[in-house]
Automatic annotation (TrEMBL):
SMART domains membership: KISc
Organism: Rhynchospora breviuscula
Lineage: Eukaryota, Viridiplantae, Streptophyta, Embryophyta, Tracheophyta
Protein name (database record): Kinesin motor domain-containing protein
GO terms under biological process: microtubule depolymerization; microtubule-based movement; regulation of cell wall organization or biogenesis
Alphabetical keyword list: ATP-binding, Microtubule, Motor protein, Nucleotide-binding
PROSITE patterns: KINESIN_MOTOR_2 (PS50067)
Amino acid sequence: MPKPDALPENGYLKSLPVDKEKLASVAKIKVVIRKRPLNKKEIAKKKEDIISIEGASNFDLTEYVERHEFVFDAVLDEDVSNDEVYRETVEPVVPAIFQRTKATCFAYGQTGIGKTFTMKPLPLKASQDILRLMNHAYKNQGFQLFVSFFEIYGGKLFDLLNDRKKLLMREDGKQKVCIVGLQEYRVNDVEMIRELIEKGNATRNTGTTGANEESSRSHAILQLAIKRLVDGNESKPPRPIGKLSFIDLACSERGADTTNNDKQTRIEGAEINKSLLALKECIRALDNDQTHIPFRGSKLTEVLRDSLLVTLALS
Ligand SMILES: Nc1ncnc2c1ncn2[C@@H]1O[C@H](COP(=O)(O)OP(=O)(O)OP(=O)(O)O)[C@@H](O)[C@H]1O
């Protein structure tokens, strides 16, 4: 995990509520699996639940299925609540964003697996914790919280909090990515954040695929940015400190699920799969500590180039 740049030592850092042990356990990439229950369609078709988690009881299908074992950083069973998902994934990282860390949390998997269901509650819970820290441990330290929400659809960026206004992505000489025109809202209460998240979700591009009636056809990226006043001066623009990005990825579909899709849905699917592959390549390169990370593989990875170092992936 990259060491966050130290903030000026002025005494208060010592009292930061950073749980170093928990944070170290997040490492560079943490992969958490969440098993979802069978859905109505699967129950109607009398499908069997063939995934078992160590320690959990399940049907004994050993006679019929091949056994594969996989190991992850954490595995959450189908009866685990969204609160527990938050505690296992995002919560340990929240204090670190006050120390110049930029982290990303996303859910990955094929359509209908529960990505949106899992991702939706996380930003609000994180905002609650950020505000709590700003109002207590970091009180009067000049920290401010900003929310932005945009989507990437067909390789183009749209502002979900500004009538889907088209946005441009630029890179400066230092390869710092800037999204020109993106509206950032300064927020200081949870209700305001809830409204912004709801507004963004309602504006998002969804459609129906062969496998999910309300399928995400775009990557939706919600960012919680911490900034800090320069010398406590309200009239100067605050300085960016850290960022938490939440991505609800568009669905990846298996070939077998795409047969009933129309032409537009298939074109969307190809674009989506291309960007998911680029994301996978970046994660693999990061995990192998490679010096070259192929961020330019897609708009998605370009946009996230500064935030992909601490990654919490749910599947
Ligand atoms: N853990 C869960 N518990 C209960 N219901 C769930 C769970 N996960 C998913 N679901 C339900 O399954 C359906 C599909 O979930 P969701 O839309 O989140 O999938 P998705 O992976 O985001 O799909 P897509 O990629 O097509 O957008 C939804 O009706 C959702 O409420």
